[in-house]
Amino acid sequence: MNDPRVAVVVRTKDRPRFLDRALRSIAGQTMQEWECVIVNDGGDPAGVDEMVARVPEEHRDKVRVLHRAESHGRWASANAGIIASTAPLLVLHDDDDSWHPDFLELATRYLDREKNEDRGGVVSRIEIVWEHLDEHGDYVSYGRETFQQDLTAPALTDTMLFNRFVPIGFVYRRALHDELGLYDERLPVVGDWNFTLKVLARGGLEYLDPDVAYAYWHQRPGQNGSTGNSVIASDREHRQVDAQIRDEAFRQYVSEYGPGLPLYLTKFIDQRLVEMEDRLRGEIERYSLPERALRTLRRKLGR
Fold it and tell me: CA 264 → CA 5, 260, 261, 267, distances in Å?
């Protein structure tokens, strides 16, 4: 295909059923000037090739596959797909997620506007789709909710705490990688959050539509292995890498500016927690609640 507008990078490994849904989501877009690079990260090539063969013929030449004999990880796979593509806009489409048919059209139209030329990308509201395996072996939805529905914008201040959007909802300019670098391949998880912090530190982002979700984040609580979501199935790893990123940033700050402000803030925050604990203790004693309730509250406060 000549001059695609958006490069869609799909990372997959031994999840052909999900990949089939993802490819139907991509092929069903009303904006058809896209290219798709599938990075098979050490999975069975036959299952991937079979799903690609199901793509409608008019779109099949837009899809390329990088079969990797060994797994290199999520973010090395993302980078491989980015490098293998050419379009000026990028989006990571996880193999188990999906889109509204108008998503790419609306996102490219937003980024084409002259007033948005300094925006690094645009974020869709994201709808979580809760799904489970039914008696026929199909994944079916049993509930939906808007992710971070109270936010007015995907701001850096909020994202400092945790990621406020996931890759399926973020279309961005390839030039961001020229400026900020590729995804950090050292990170087994949360590489998207790490990159998002850099993007938001560079400049603000907006929601494509404050009221409508055009990106669907499918989640399967209780599922592990190849059918699980990393944010659920790899919760411990997420917390470990989150702590690693924060510690690296903290050490960089201290080496540049010294420990003065962090020392003050850690003591200030600790004092506020002690005051809160004392108030909670008083409330518990006032209403004669059992001591174990206090112990539960102390654990939640990290004390």
Answer: 49, 6, 5, 5
